[in-house]
Amino acid sequence: MLVDGCLACSVLAGKVQAPGGVIYEDNYWVVEHSLNPVLLPGYLIIKLKRHCEHLAELTLEEANSLGEIIQNTCSALSQVVKPAKIHVCSWGEQVKHIHFHVIPRSSSMPVGNFQLLIYLRIKKLFNQLGLRKWVSNAEAAKIAAEVRLEFKL
After folding, report:
1. Which of 66, 86, 108, 152 suits 132 as a labelling partner, its CA being 20 to 30 A distant?
2. Which part of the chain is the HIT domain (predicted)?
């Protein structure tokens, strides 16, 4: 079941399109590039195909398949972007739909979870002020296509 007003549900329903479209999809999960404004090339989102707000409410099948999806997403992204590190995290505060941010950290970006979050926040602010450009939809779509080719499930 999808919920009106939920950004993740809107993407799943096709009302909003991620650059490059679906990278991978199975019975429970979808992997896509992050939406506009795209802060980093290769910043991917793994989201549950049904609306669910709490990890404790995943079905056994959804929970059992999650690790493999995360591992394969990180592996494919590593082949394409070749980051120094990949961070996978879930907040679920603004978009109350189970989803995971897959964030490639290049060697030029700061090391550490807190430092990376500050970096992303500053980058977003600079982009909003027009001091730096967003990653283009074309660049994000190109990376999505390359990651799709590397996906091993």
Report:
1. 86
2. 7-116
For residue 48, give the H/E element and its range.
Answer: strand 44-48
- Reported as a single tens digit per residue, the pLDDT across 68-82 is 999 999 999 999 999
**The sheet that has 29-33: what strands, in order across it?**
22-25, 29-33, 44-48, 99-105, 85-89
Radius of gyration of the chain from its Cα atoms, rounded to whole angstroms: 15
Structure tokens belonging to residue 150: 């590397």
**How does pLDDT run across 82-137, given as a tens digit for each residue?**
999 998 999 877 788 999 999 898 787 667 766 666 666 666 666 665 556 678 88
Predicted structure pTM score: 0.86
Cα–Cα distance between 73 and 92 in angstroms, integer?
19
3-state SS class at 57: helix
